[in-house]
Amino acid sequence: MATSSSTSAAFRSPHDPIRVVPLRVDDRLVAPAPGAPPSATPSLTYRAGPLLTAVQSFTFFWGAAWQVQPQAGLAQQINQFFDYVVTSPLLDQMAEYSVPGKAIGHGAHIGTATLAAPAPGPSVLDSDIQQMIQQEISTNSAVPQPTPNSLYFLFLPPGVSVSLDGGSSCTAFCGYHSDINGQIFYAVMPYPDCTGCAGALTVLDAITSTTSHELCEAITDPIPGQGWYDDNNGEIGDICAWKTKKLGVYTVQLE
User: Fold this and answer.
1) Does pLDDT of 7 surpass 50?
2) DSSP 117
3) Could you tell me which of 102, 109, 101 has the C-alpha nearest to residue 53?
4) Could you read off the pLDDT of 87-138 as tens digits, one per residue?
5) How is residue 51 annotated by DSSP?
6) From CA 157, how far away is CA 192, in angstroms rounded?
């Protein structure tokens, strides 16, 4: 979908792969001009990098806000979503991206942690998040050590934005995934307290939609641009960003 690559390109380095959930954009606002050539047809290719063949998800909820209602209840619902989605038909769909020696199957949700301190400021950097994840892995016995299938999801509380590649959440993107030295895979999910990251969806539906986007992209392209990737359209979620369906009781994105 053209809006995915055009939105993220506004703040990416020309050499950075697309790895974000783009802002929700009304297609009527980005319709091509009369006579404009069609956008490039999606053509995903496998770039020989790692795949998460049996994803092991672990969730971080950063900030004391996740310890009180309504966020405490929302965190529980998010963990229930992970319990469901990693063995759901959505993961069966990911088998399409298996390659010889790397068969993608079901995974498991292996734990969660709420990090009240240090409290996040109103804006955090991706480098801050990387440092915190590494510190928790090193010092918190409740946090599992990384494996080739580990995927750490970090959820930010309301009112906290994250900066990445010169852009900020809710003004340039709604979430992203990345890696630390090609060995620790993680995704960052800002709270959807803006129209561009929620639209008419409920908070939970907006979160499960963007989370499923990043889950599927991290499985198939954990080191952005080295797994399944399209130079013009990005990863498997970017091609159909904000096209959703119901899976059980949850809203997920098409891939």
Assistant:
1) no
2) S
3) 102
4) 999 999 999 999 999 999 999 999 999 999 899 999 999 999 999 999 999 9
5) -
6) 9
* CB within 8 Å of 249: residues ≥ 6 apart: none
Secondary structure in 3-state letters for 132-194: HHHHHHHHCCCCCCCCCCEEEEEECCCCCEEEECCEEECCCEEEEEEEECCCEEEEEECCCCC
Query: Could you give the CA distance from residue 151 to residue 218 in angstroms, rounded to a whole number?
Result: 8
Rounded-to-10 torsion of CA 138, 140, 145, 146: -80
In this prediction the pTM is 0.89
Do residues 189 and 214 make contact, with C-beta atoms less than 8 angstroms apart? Answer: yes
Distance CA 212, CA 185 (A): 15
Give me the percent of the chain exceeding a pLDDT of 70. 87
Provide the residue type at 53 as one letter.
Answer: T
pLDDT higher than 50, residue 238 = yes
What is residue 29's predicted lDDT score, i.e. its pLDDT?
33
Residue 104, classed as helix, strand or coil, is coil
Amino acid 39: pLDDT: 58
Closest CA to 206 of 187, 218, 216, 191: 191
Rg (CA), the chain: 17
Tokens 């963007």 belong to which residue? 210
